[in-house]
C-alpha cells in the first residue's frame, strides 16, 4: 500500500513567488488527507495533478491566515464534481466559525456535506479501517495542534515452509491465513495464523508539527515517525526571536527529531527573510544535530516506505 507526502507549500507568514504557504497532502492509496491549507495550496495541487477534489479530511493546525486562506477556494471548487462522502475538517476552536463565516460571506455553493469538528483535548480525531490520526497540543500565540497519522501493526511475514509442514495446501487457504483466519489442513487439523506467520510488523507513521515554541513533549508524540514534517523557521542566531514569536529554530526541530528517533525530518514553514539559497543555513545547522534532515520545497514528494 503506497503512502506519500506531497509538500504543497513550505513557506511561513507570507507567500513568495517561489514559495507557497504551508500545506502538506498525504496520499494513502485512494485516501487523501490535507494538513493545513495556506495560500497557493490549489496551485500546487493542480501542478501535481492530484485528485484533490476527493480529499477525505483536512487537519488544520491553527487559524492563522497563512494556514487557512487556501481553504475557501478549495471548498468551492470541490463542488464542481459529484461527491457522496462528507468532507471532514478538524482543527482547534475557531475553525468552525472560520469555515461557516467563509461559506456565508462568499455565498458558497456546496453540494456535499462538510463536517467540522473542533479539537478541545488531545486524542484520536479520525479513524480508518487500519489507521488513525491523533492530535496533540502545541504552544503558539493561539491554540495550535500537531498531528500524527499512524497505521495499525501489520501481520507478520508468511512462512510458506511452516504452512507446508502443517499440511496446508498452497492456494486460497494460504491467503486466508495471511488475512488472520484459522483454516483446516489437508489432514483435518486446525491451523491458526500464529503458527505460520512471523512477529507483527510495524505500520508507518507520519507526523506534522508547525507553529510552536520548542516543547520536549513533542518528541514523545512523534516518536518513531517514518517522516516528520516540522517547522524550522529560524536559524540559531535568532533563537530569541523564535522564542518571542513562539516558533522554533531548525536546531530545536532537529533536537525533537533526534529525541524521537524519527527516520527522516523535513523542515518546513520558513521565515520569508530567507531566500532559497539562504535556507542552507537552516539545513546545515539542523544536520549537526540530526543528519537525516532535508529542506522541503514546494511540490516535493516523499514516499514513505515500510521499514521491513
Task: Characterise the protein shown here.
The protein has 308 residues and is an alpha/beta fold. Helix content is 25%, strand content 24%. The chain has helices spanning 41-47, 65-68, 71-77, 95-105, 160-165, 172-178, 217-221, 239-245, 250-260, 279-289; strands at 3-9, 23-28, 31-35, 57-59, 87-91, 114-118, 123-127, 131-137, 145-151, 183-184, 190-191, 205-209, 227-231, 265-268, 293-295, 301-303. The protein has a seven-stranded mixed sheet with strand order 6-5-4-3-2-1-16, covered by helices on one side. Strands 7-8-9-12-13-14-15 form a seven-stranded mixed sheet, covered by helices on one side. A hairpin with a 3-residue loop joins strand 7 (123-127) and strand 8 (131-137). Helix 9 (250-260) runs parallel beside helix 10. 40% of the residues are buried. Keywords: Endonuclease, Hydrolase, Metal-binding, Nuclease, tRNA processing, Zinc. Zn(2+) 2 binds at residues 66-67, 211, 269.
Topology:
Layout lengths: L2 E7 L13 E6 L2 E5 L5 H7 L9 E3 L5 H4 L2 H7 L9 E5 L3 H11 L8 E5 L4 E5 L3 E7 L7 E7 L8 H6 L6 H7 L4 E2 L5 E2 L13 E5 L7 H5 L5 E5 L7 H7 L4 H11 L4 E4 L10 H11 L3 E3 L5 E3 L5
Parallel strand pairs: 3-4, 4-5, 5-6, 12-13, 13-14, 14-15
Antiparallel strand pairs: 1-2, 1-16, 2-3, 7-8, 8-9, 9-12, 10-11
Helix pairs in contact: 9-10
InterPro entries: Metallo-B-lactamas, RibonucZ/Hydroxyglut_hydro, RNase_Z/BN
Protein name: Ribonuclease Z
Keywords: Endonuclease, Hydrolase, Metal-binding, Nuclease, tRNA processing, Zinc
Amino acid at each position: 500500500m503506497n503512502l506519500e507526502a506531497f509538500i504543497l507549500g513550505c513557506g511561513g507568514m507570507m507567500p513568495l513567488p517561489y514559495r507557497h504557504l504551508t500545506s502538506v497532502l498525504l496520499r494513502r492509496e485512494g485516501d487523501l488527507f490535507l494538513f493545513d491549507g495556506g495560500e497557493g495550496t490549489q496551485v500546487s495541487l493542480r501542478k501535481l495533478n492530484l485528485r484533490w477534489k476527493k480529499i477525505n479530511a483536512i487537519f488544520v493546525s491553527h487559524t492563522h491566515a497563512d494556514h487557512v486562506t487556501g481553504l475557501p477556494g478549495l471548498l468551492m471548487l470541490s463542488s464542481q464534481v459529484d461527491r457522496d462522502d462528507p468532507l471532514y475538517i478538524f482543527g482547534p476552536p475557531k475553525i468552525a466559525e472560520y469555515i461557516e463565516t467563509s461559506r456565508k460571506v462568499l455565498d458558497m455553493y456546496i453540494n456535499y456535506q462538510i463536517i467540522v469538528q473542533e479539537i478541545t483535548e488531545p486524542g484520536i480525531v479520525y479513524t480508518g479501517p487500519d489507521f488513525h490520526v491523533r492530535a496533540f497540543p502545541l504552544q503558539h500565540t493561539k491554540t495550535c495542534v500537531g498531528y500524527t497519522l499512524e497505521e495499525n501493526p501489520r501481520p507478520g511475514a508468511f512462512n510458506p515452509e511452516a504452512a507446508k509442514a502443517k499440511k496446508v495446501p498452497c492456494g486460497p487457504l494460504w491467503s486466508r491465513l495471511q488475512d488472520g483466519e484459522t483454516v483446516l489442513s489437508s489432514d483435518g487439523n486446525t491451523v491458526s495464523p500464529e503458527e505460520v506467520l512471523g512477529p507483527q510488523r510495524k505500520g508507518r507513521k507520519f507526523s506534522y508539527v508547525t507553529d510552536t515554541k520548542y516543547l520536549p513533549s513533542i518528541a514523545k508524540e512523534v516518536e518513531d515517525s517514518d517522516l516528520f514534517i516540522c517547522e524550522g523557521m529560524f536559524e540559531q542566531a535568532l533563537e530569541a526571536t523564535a522564542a518571542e514569536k513562539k516558533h522554533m529554530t531548525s536546531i530545536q526541530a532537529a533536537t525533537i527529531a533526534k529525541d524521537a528517533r524519527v527516520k527522516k525530518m523535513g523542515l518546513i514553514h520558513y521565515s520569508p527573510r530567507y531566500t532559497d539559497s539562504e535556507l542552507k543555513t537552516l539545513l546545515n545547522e539542523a544536520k549537526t544535530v540530526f543528519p537525516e534532515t532535508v529542506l522541503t520545497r514546494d511540490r516535493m514528494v516523499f514516499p514513505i516506505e515500510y521499514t521491513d
